[in-house]
Structure formats: structure tokens, C-alpha cells
Amino acid sequence: MAIIITDECINCGACEPECPNTAIYEGADDWRYSDGTSLEGDVVLPNGNAVNADNAQEPISDEIYYIVPDKCTECQGFHEEPQCAAVCPVDCCVPDEDHVETEEVLLGKQAFMHPDD
Ligand code: SF4
Ligand code: SF4
Predict the structure, then answer these.
(1) What are the residue boundaries of the 4Fe-4S ferredoxin-type domain, all occurrences included (predicted)?
(2) Is 93 in the pocket of ligand 2 (CB under 6 A)?
(3) 34-57: per-residue pLDDT in tens?
């Protein structure tokens, strides 16, 4: 399951540099699959979708920091617990019930984005 940032976010920015997958972006910023990963050019995601990893994608929120579900692995493959949730001063990084995934799937996403780690 991915983590989601709720509207309790105070835009402090503490979580963004902690994410090993560069899945966290400031509100209104574009995001890319290639940011902080080994992905580049045309790729087929583990979920079967074909994308260009270098293309800028629309922000998921314009007001608060947001997490890209496709890039979030709950920190699986890097850390014991979600790092964003660990540092957030207002505890607004919570499990995203709309993006429930098994540990196997999360580790598969991590290996897909970081094949050389
Ligand atoms: S749980 Fe980990 S991978 Fe997901 S957004 Fe938070 S820091 Fe990034
Ligand atoms: S650490 Fe929490 S309050 Fe700060 S930007 Fe991230 S989600 Fe928002």
C-alpha cells in the first residue's frame, strides 16, 4: 500500500528529502518517473502501463506536498518503516486505502525503479 499525505499537511518540506524513491513532491510541482530512479525514456510499468519516464506529469496536488502512488514502495527495499511518516511533525502521512499492495508488489516496484541497488 502506498502512503498518502492528508490535507493536515503544513507544507514544512521535511518529508521530501527523506524519500528513497523521490515519490514526494511539493504542491504544484510536476513529477517524473525518472526523478531519483534509474528509469529513462519509454518504459512499461509493473502495472502494465506504458509511459515515458522523462515526461513531466501533472501535479497530484496544487496546495500541499503529495506522494506519487506509482513511486511509493512504503520504503520497502530501503527502510524498515515509511520515512515520510517517521519525520512528519503532524502525522499526516498515512496508509492510502485506495492503493493497497502486497510486500511482494512493493518490492517489485522498488527493484523496477532501482535495478542496480
Ligand atoms: S513511504 Fe517511503 S517511499 Fe513512500 S512516499 Fe514515504 S518516504 Fe517515499
Ligand atoms: S513532513 Fe508532513 S507536514 Fe511536512 S510537508 Fe511532509 S507531509 Fe507535509
Answers:
(1) 1-29, 63-98
(2) yes
(3) 999 999 999 999 999 999 999 999
**Ligand that lies nearest to the alpha carbon of residue 82, given by its number in the listed order:** 1
Tell me the backbone φ, ψ of residue 85, rounded to 5 degrees: -65, -35
Cβ 44 under 6 angstroms from ligand 2: no
Are the C-beta atoms of residues 111 and 74 closer than 8 Å to each other? no
Report yes or no: 4 and 84 within 8 Å, Cβ to Cβ.
Answer: no
Cell 501535479 -> residue: 59
CATH number of the domain at 1-116, out of 1.10.3720.10, 3.30.160.20, 3.30.70.20, 3.40.50.720?
Answer: 3.30.70.20
Q: d(Cα 93, Cα 17) in Å, to the nearest integer? A: 14
**pTM of the predicted model, to two decimals?**
0.96
> CB 25: neighbour CB atoms within 10 A?
22
Atom 6 of ligand 1, residue of closest alpha carbon? 84
Give the pLDDT confidence of 103-115 residue by residue, as tens digits: 999 999 999 999 9
